[in-house]
Amino acid sequence: MSHTILNKKEKERAIRRLLIQAPPGEFVNAFDDLCLLIRDEKLMQHQGECAGHQHCQKYYVPLCIDGNPVLLSHHNVVGDFRFFDYHSKLSFKFDLLQNQLKDIQSHGIIRNETEYLRNVVFRALKIYVNDHYPTGNCNVLRKTVKNKDFLIACIEGHCYETGNFWNGLWKSKWIFQVNPFLTQVTGRIFVQAHYFKSVNLHVEISKDLKESLEIVNQAQLALSFARLVEEQENKFQAAVCEELQELSDEALRKILRRDLPVTRTFIDWQRILSDLNLVMYPKLGYVIYSRSVLCNWII
Asked: What's this model's pTM, rounded to 2 decimal places?
């Protein structure tokens, strides 16, 4: 059996790619498993920090600073692996592997009308999140692009039940420009679930939306925006639940990467492994097995 030895750059890319693919709530588990394979503490630590920073942005990892929730995303990145929190007016680095804030510094903000509107929108959105999410979090950020002010609202709700072999995440992002009379809201809702008891099932569902909002004053805009988010997320949730209930064997086959039989039974992998004639080569990273035994099991 031939094998390829990766050079340092290729190994770094492979490690980072595998870590970035870790489902929400499972980054540390993936890191620990890779450490057992790579056995290079310095290399893994560096790649873990880089990939962890990207993981936080991708899945809106929530923190708590001075009793206030903070969502990490690429919208509040300020460079050099640092994040910024509007409420505490702090910038910091976050070590996902240690679950620890590092290098905390003060970070000023410009107080203007857009900042006041950001605060009002956040309070309205927070009421909605508290009413609809058991453990949800939200952030409202602001960006200036080509002298135009934008507000970005991020919502995150997760349930990590590793002991019960499943993890799930709901997140959404909503962006609109601060205009005098009318604005267009662009949104994206994303759901990801991972079930790993005797199977390895990943489910990802998303939807993009565009809606218009009239602007009378800041209070009206904040309330209308929160109602819009509530309406669209409720519709999305109802559609997902209905689709999953009607999921047939034929539909399941279509979403599989390969045309596999749907038997709705578990494969006894432990019994298969006990029947295989395994010869381990840990340094080379491969296994020789009795192919006839495995074929008999599959048939």
From this structure: 0.80
